[in-house]
Amino acid sequence: MSRLIQYFLNMSTFESRLNEILNDKQSGSVTILNELSNLLLKEAQKSNPFHIRLKKLLPEIRSKLGHFAVISHFLTVLEESLLTLSHQTNGNSVLADFINNYLEKWENVNKDIARAAIDHLHPNGKRIMVHSNSSAVVAFFSLLKEEEISATVIQTESRPGNEGVLQARRIAGMGFETTLIVDSAMALMMPQTDLVIFGADRLYPGFFVNKIGTYAMALLAGDFNVPCYVLADSRKTVLNPVQFALSKEPQQPKSEILDSPYRNIHPVNYYFEPVPGNLIKALITEKGAGKFT
């Protein structure tokens, strides 16, 4: 096989995998970031001048994934790194080193969050309600298993993407008894719940943004005096806060909630919503527990 043919085959494989990542609607933002950064690292370790091609790809990546604060953080520092690589013959090598260093710096962040959460929550024997799919939440249960701390779980399916089913499988696969419910059963199951744990996609002063349904669950928890906690990577903090505007949130396909168009029905399919921080007992990051300010 000629080098030219191999080059285009590799590029096709890369583009296909990148497209899968850009359209992933089930994984948490940290999982998507890890998939993205590892794909870019693998491509940068090849001989072609990938750092030049990557510059052209970044606007599309940011348009699809930039609403995730943790991915925006990575893309910003990546863009700064690429500014110095245009005329370097070893640009790919420098790019690979940068991505490697970034991954090493943040590889244990979820375990650090999990450790801080266990120390703060004392979850042994508790029944915990969770929503959507978060790598920080999964890491929390992974550390519970490692330390032989018992807990049971109530997991919403997390419509319309149903990514909560994926998280339920991961948690149940660790050995935790997991009750999977439809989102509208939150109120029915809240009296049986000791605490609620959320992930977060973005952290703002006074509020956070997470999967649709989070606000309703937090309000219900307040009605039943069940404490709510957010587990999140500090990179998700929006450094230049602006007023959150739902109108700027990307809407997802209307077909997810209505199979085919129907006269006078106008589906609205937002995946994310703002949630007031005063509904949350503590925000737990790798730095420890604190309050939304």
Task: Compute the number of structural domains.
Answer: 2
Flag low-confidence runs: 1-9
CATH topology heading of the largest domain: Rossmann fold
Strand percent estimate: 5-15%
* Order of neighbouring strands in the sheet with most strands: 3-2-1-4-7-9-10
Helical percentage? 40-55%
> Count of helices?
10
Structural class: alpha/beta
Largest sheet: 7 strands, mixed
- Which whole number gives the mean pLDDT? 90
Gyration radius (Cα, Å) is 21 Å
The CATH superfamily of the largest domain is identified as: Translation initiation factor eif-2b, domain 2
Termini separation comes to 60 Å
SSE blueprint:
Layout: H1 3-22, H2 29-44, H3 50-65, H4 69-82, H5 91-106, H6 109-121, E1 126-130, H7 135-146, E2 151-156, H8 163-173, E3 178-181, H9 186-189, E4 195-198, E5 202-204, E6 207-211, H10 214-223, E7 228-231, E8 272-276, E9 282-285, E10 288-290
Parallel strand pairs: 1-2, 1-4, 2-3, 4-7, 7-9
Antiparallel strand pairs: 5-6, 6-8, 9-10
Short account of what is shown:
It contains 10 helices and 10 strands. The protein is an alpha/beta fold and 293 residues long.
Question: What are its keywords?
Answer:
alpha/beta; three-stranded antiparallel beta sheet; Rossmann fold; disordered N terminus; 10 strands
Q: What does this 3D model show about the protein?
A:
The protein has 293 residues and is of the alpha/beta class. It has two domains: 3-106; 109-290, Translation initiation factor eif-2b, domain 2 (Rossmann fold). The chain is 45% helix and 15% strand. It has ten helices and ten strands. Helix 2 packs antiparallel against helix 5 (91-106), helix 3 runs antiparallel to helix 4 and helix 6 packs across helix 7 (135-146). The longest helix is centred in the N-terminal third of the chain and has 20 residues, at 3-22.
